[in-house]
Each structure stands twice: as structure tokens, then as C-alpha cells.
What does this fold into?
Amino acid sequence: MYEFTEDCMIHIDNIDDEHRRLFQMLNEAFALVKETDNAASIAKNLIANLKDYAVTHFAHEEEYMKSIHDPELPIQQREHKAFAEKINSFQLDESSPEAARNSLNELLLYLTKWLYSHILSSDMMIGKMAPETNVDDAFAFTDKYITGIELVDEEHKHLFDIIRDTNDVIHAELLHDKYDEIIRLLSELREYTETHFSDEEKLMEKIGYPGLATQKRAHAAFVEKLVNIDFRELEAMDDNQEEYLMDLIGFLLGWLSNHILASDMKIGEYIKEHKIEIQ
Ligand SMILES: [Fe+2]
Ligand SMILES: [Fe+2]
Ligand SMILES: [Fe+2]
It folds into this structure.
């Protein structure tokens, strides 16, 4: 069961309400599929209702983003479209009642996971403007990011460095294998992010940190985002490749900085408060 947990709140009332409603609808759908003897007969309605509500919600969200000139609007539009396409292309397996139930369940599970991860990785950033990436110290790992946990701070700094390097390559004028280098750096970022999250989670486990589950969910959503960067799509672009990459870098830096300030700092505070020794 997927719950709309505290960490899903983005603190924009309308959007939070609609997200909560979507979760509720999905949970009701799971319950319905469980109870029915004939999943095929309810599938059509169920899916249509979900899709309608989701599409309306996406439109509201995009409208809001437009109104605040949120630079991540194109990224969100792409993701929302993918969700709608997944629902549209769904084919119910009607070979037996059991198969119908399973295939409907599978779709619901996919949609729930998608929504959860989308909220935690993308919607979370609505209204939190990504930092200006064209100012001098945009990529600087300044004191405000210091959690006081040496390993965590070092790893965070390294993440910032990889993002800065990627940004430098995007803007480099004379580099003939620019594209390959960007892909290499983004892959490095993904790998290092996974290493870092795993280290951070181990540490939280070790000290019995109460926010571990929330952190794990946020980490998983961000990693999924990194895994889903579509290099083929990038390759196919000519004119707006640079713009796409700059948006992406702005997003990654924004998410990370936001996560460190809002969540990781609390690990440091917990350690201090409970006078925990880390060796
Ligand atoms: Fe969204
Ligand atoms: Fe972290
Ligand atoms: Fe974290």
C-alpha cells in the first residue's frame, strides 16, 4: 500500500490536495480489483476515471508552473505525457479472470510507483527555483551545506564537483567530443550518487536515524530520475540540446541542494543532539 506520506507534500495546497486524491483513487482501485470477480468488467471505467483525473491534475500543475515561469515546465510536460501514454497503451490481458486481475493490478502498481517517484523527484521542485547556473559560485559547495558529518560532506562536495564539470563541458566552445564527455559525466554522476546514497543510508541505519525510510524514498526517486535520462532523445536534438542540458543540470543541482538543506542537515542535527560518536 502506497500512502501519501508527509514527504510527498510540496506545500502548494491545490497541488497537494490533488496528489492526495490521486493516491486515494489508486488505493480505492486496488481494493476494487481485489474484491471483484470480474476485473475485465471494471477495468475500462476504472482506467478512464484515473486517467481523467490525472490529466486534469497535470493541466493544473502545468498552468501553475507557467504562471510562476518555472523553468522545469518542459521536463514536467514530458513526464506527464509519458504517464498518459502508458495508460493509453494499456491492454488488458483477458485470457482468464485471473490474468485480467493480474494485469490490472500490474498497471495500478506501475502508476502508483510512477506517481510517487514523480512527486518526490519532480513536483518537489515546483516553485523552488533552480539556482542560477550562470553566476560565479552557483556550483560552489558553501558552508551552508555542511552537515558536520565528514563522509557525507565530502561526498556531497564531490557530487557538486561532477555537476560543475558537466556544466563546464556543456559551455565549452572547442571540444569536439563534447557530447560523449557529457554522457560520461552524467553516468559518473549517477554512479557516484548511488554510492553516496548507499553510504548515507548505512550511516542512518547505524545510528538508528528515525527519518531513514523517508530519506530512502527520496533517494530512490532521484536515482530513478538519473537512470531515466534519455541519451537517445538528447542525441536526436540539434538546436535545443544545450538548453535541455542546462535545464537538466539546473534541476539536478536544485534537487540536490534542496535535499541537503531540507533533509540531510537533519541527520547532522540528530547526531549532535544525541551526542552520537561516529568513527
Ligand atoms: Fe508533475
Ligand atoms: Fe546526501
Ligand atoms: Fe540524503
User: Anything to note?
Assistant: The chain has a mean pLDDT of 91. The pocket of fe (ii) ion (ligand 2) is lined by residues 152, 156, 196, 200, 260, 264 (CB under 6 Å). The CA atoms of residues 132 and 138 lie 6 Å apart. The radius of gyration is 21 Å.
